[in-house]
Amino acid sequence: MKLAKSLASTIAVASVVLYAGIASAQTAPTQLVTTRGMNGSYIGAGVSAGVTNGGRQNDAAVLGGNVQGRVAVKNTPVSVRGSVLFGGDSTAIIPTLTYDAPIAKNTNLYIGGGYSFLTDEGQASQLGNKNAPVLTLGAETQVAKNTVIYGDAKWGIDAYKGSDSDALSLQAGVGYRF
Fold first, then answer.
1. How many other C-beta atoms are found inside a 10 Å radius of the C-beta of residue 12?
2. This prediction's pTM
3. Cβ-contact 66, 47 below 8 angstroms
4. What separation, in Å, do the N-terminal and C-terminal C-alpha atoms of the chain show?
5. Where are the alpha helices (H) located in the chain, listed in sequence order?
6. Which of 38, 54, 80, 145 has an alpha carbon within 20 to 30 A of 44's alpha carbon?
7. Domain CATH for 98
8. In the chain, how many domains are there?
9. d(Cα 172, Cα 12) in Å, to the nearest integer?
């Protein structure tokens, strides 16, 4: 049942993002063509907050930091991303693959999936206390030359030991685009 809900939620969000990407790529004949979306790669740092609790001792929500990066795959709407969420008793290392939908000049929405590897399973992190599959949804925009701001949500599926609870973590930060 939980897998069916997760799959249905993922398909619904992916449909919205895909529709936004298709709609943003279309232009009316009388409009000037402008570049949409943000290309390039970046690395950044910011704050991270685990907002869920697994229901057991040492499963409390955790506030900490993040280091995130994006490597754009040339000529595709795909990026390889990596995140490190730290500040609890364990650090979550999360490689992901995302689809990037351009929504405005220098701005993307992204959706994707990956896996959370904890440095110390059983100990609290912003994304649960065990290794788990992760879905992510976020936005990024270039606000100045080589300066990017980003924010996303990461959903760890079945991310707590001894519980069938999911974990949710929110991230925001500033990055250097290269």
1. 10
2. 0.79
3. yes
4. 43
5. 2-25
6. 54
7. 2.40.160.20
8. 1
9. 24
